[in-house]
Design brief:
Number of helices: 18
Largest sheet: 5 strands, mixed
Helix content: 25-40%
Shape: globular
Oligomer: single chain
Distance between the termini: 38 Å
């Protein structure tokens, strides 16, 4: 814990997405709200221009019959028009249904049927897909291509407003009405449509900013169909009148970061790991690794006596991230503790948070000057967090949340909603604990628990975190049953997969086993030939991963043969 508690940061009270846009126009009309690439050209849209585009598209929706809670799906890579579509739908009493651009035809068809979407706005890359879907029986009545149709719709909407069509602009928003249905891309189970409201969305943004000072420009890196991406990279900079630069492809991540010069970025751990690896790989290629490590040592000694030289000593490292990066917000999965120190060495602070789609999504966050490494922070001021069904042996239990951020329920799924809710508390399905200082820690998913023959519970995520520290391991998934625990491992692609590499991993897992009770030990290792299937936030899809490599050239090795006692 760095510092003791200090006052919450002052944040404007915003209750609806429309208020968020209006505040930007009122306070910063001519400041850039969004930046993006169009070919090699970098374009910007001011808050005034953005609001005008949202009102125009929303007016077009109204005048073409899309009103009164119409469900409008949106699908495509991150883009300015994707964001305009989202805002235009929710600010007029309609419901946006963000679709993962990686979904196949059957998944798209099922999601549209489940959500009862009557319109789809899609990127040009998905034109053939929606052409096929529209030819068959479907709820879709309106299809708009972002490249060809949406600019025209915005132009028509502006003309309609000029002619006095003000129904959309004058629409009164109900804070608690569902405005977004997000289908979870979870690592297990079938997707469910999570219903969120203006109150829940704005509550999570406003209250999380009371915990953490995030008040500069950013780069949008994560897929927009995720609530974490919208809350952290779109709503957050708007709250302080700052710009969001839209990255639309992974190959341009560092180029866009250098262009936008962000103060903060919201990412998942895979990005943090990749950035760190790139820093040291570049140092090695330039034969400067020893020099960089020496500078880190000098810098850390200076910090101990109150002298901060990091912005000078590591200027080249910081310039690779635009030169202004101060803060990385990491969420979506646990982050290895080593990365806190790695980036702290260079003058970039990492804070971890915890969230879940059903909570809009931010539940807790570490503070800028009050944090604990390995913790996911303190609960946001607008919600309560308690641990239910605490295990007497471990002290772990299910993390449950109550407050404005909690969803309205699952769309057309009353049984699933009833199962998830208990007297106003949302049961997250995540296992963890809260320490004496109020910091939350997560230890795994309830559904992933391995129950051994002796009745003891094993959290596979705990073992995965230990195995991921082995240098040769690129990815790992731990599964098991009463009789054995298996680690499925994909060797780091930068390291040659060989018998010697496998032996090195085996040896290190045996060392890990020595510090574990018998019932927690890894019994077998599977070395995979292929990466695991992942969600778009780079989480391994456990349901698809189990036995996914069966029949391939994967190799198995027995590590422990002792019976569980």
């Amino acid at each position: 814990m760095k510092n003791k508690a200090y006052p919450l940061y002052p944040v404007p009270e915003i209750e609806t997405v429309r208020e968020l846009i209006s505040a930007g126009v009122g306070n910063h009309p001519d400041k850039p709200a969004f930046g993006y690439r169009q070919g090699e050209q970098v374009l910007e849209k001011t808050f005034r221009e953005f609001a005008a585009d949202v009102n125009a598209l929303g007016t077009y929706f109204f005048e073409t019959g899309l009103s009164g809670g119409a469900k409008i799906a949106v699908m495509g890579e991150n883009s300015y028009l994707w964001i305009v579509t989202y805002m235009a739908a929710v600010c007029g009493g309609n419901i946006i249904v963000p679709l993962d651009k990686e979904l196949n035809e059957e998944e798209v068809r099922n999601t549209i049927a489940s959500s009862e979407a009557v319109a789809v706005v899609y990127a040009d890359a998905h034109a053939n897909l929606f052409g096929k879907i529209s030819e068959k029986k479907s709820t879709i009545k309106t299809l708009l291509n972002m490249r060809y149709d949406v600019p025209g719709a915005i132009s028509k909407g502006k003309n309609l407003i000029a002619e006095g069509h003000m129904d959309y602009i004058n629409h009164t928003i109900d804070l608690d009405e569902t405005c977004v249905i997000i289908y979870t891309s979870g690592t297990t189970g079938l997707a469910k449509g999570v219903m969120l409201s203006h109150r829940s969305l704005m509550s999570t943004v406003v209250q999380s900013h009371r915990l953490a000072l995030i008040n500069g420009p950013t780069v949008l890196l994560l897929p927009l169909h995720h609530t974490y991406s919208m809350a952290g990279s779109v709503f957050s900079p708007m709250l302080h009148g700052q710009m969001c630069f839209i990255n639309d492809t992974l190959k341009n991540v560092l180029r866009d970061i250098q262009t936008a010069k962000p103060q903060f970025i919201c990412v998942v751990p895979l990005y943090v790991e990749s950035f760190c690896k790139r820093i040291w790989d570049n140092a090695r290629k330039q034969d400067k690794e020893k020099l960089l490590r020496k500078l880190v040592s000098v810098s850390n000694k200076s910090l101990k006596i109150g002298i901060d030289l990091r912005r000078i000593l590591f200027k080249s490292v910081l310039n690779a991230f635009g030169g202004n990066l101060e803060l990385i917000v990491s969420g979506g999965a646990p982050l290895d503790k080593q990365y806190y120190q790695e980036f702290h060495n260079f003058g970039i602070h990492i804070i971890e948070g915890y969230g879940i789609t059903e909570c809009s999504p931010i539940v807790s966050l570490n503070r800028n000057h009050h944090w604990k490494e390995g913790s996911v922070g303190l609960p946001c001021p607008n919600c309560e967090v308690e641990i239910f069904d605490v295990d007497s042996q471990t002290g772990f239990g299910e993390i449950c949340v109550r407050g404005d951020i909690v969803m309205n329920g699952y769309y057309n799924a009353p049984e699933a909603t009833a199962e998830a809710m208990c007297d106003g508390w949302f049961r997250t399905g995540d296992i963890g604990y809260i320490d004496d200082d109020g910091f939350i820690y997560t230890t795994g998913r309830k559904k992933n628990l391995i129950i051994r023959a002796n009745g003891k519970n094993v959290h596979p995520e705990e073992l995965e975190e230990k195995i991921k520290l082995i240098p040769e391991v690129g990815e790992v998934l731990v599964t098991g049953d009463k009789k054995s625990i298996v680690a499925s491992i994909y060797i780091d692609p930068d390291i040659e997969k060989s018998r010697a590499t496998e032996k090195a991993v085996q040896k290190q897992i045996k060392e890990i086993n020595k510090d574990l009770p018998m019932w927690k030990r890894i019994n077998n290792i599977e070395f995979r030939d292929d990466e695991f299937v992942k969600t778009t936030t780079k989480k391994i899809k456990r349901g698809q991963a189990v036995n996914a490599n069966a029949g391939s050239n994967s190799t198995w090795h027995e590590v422990e043969a002792e019976e569980d006692t």
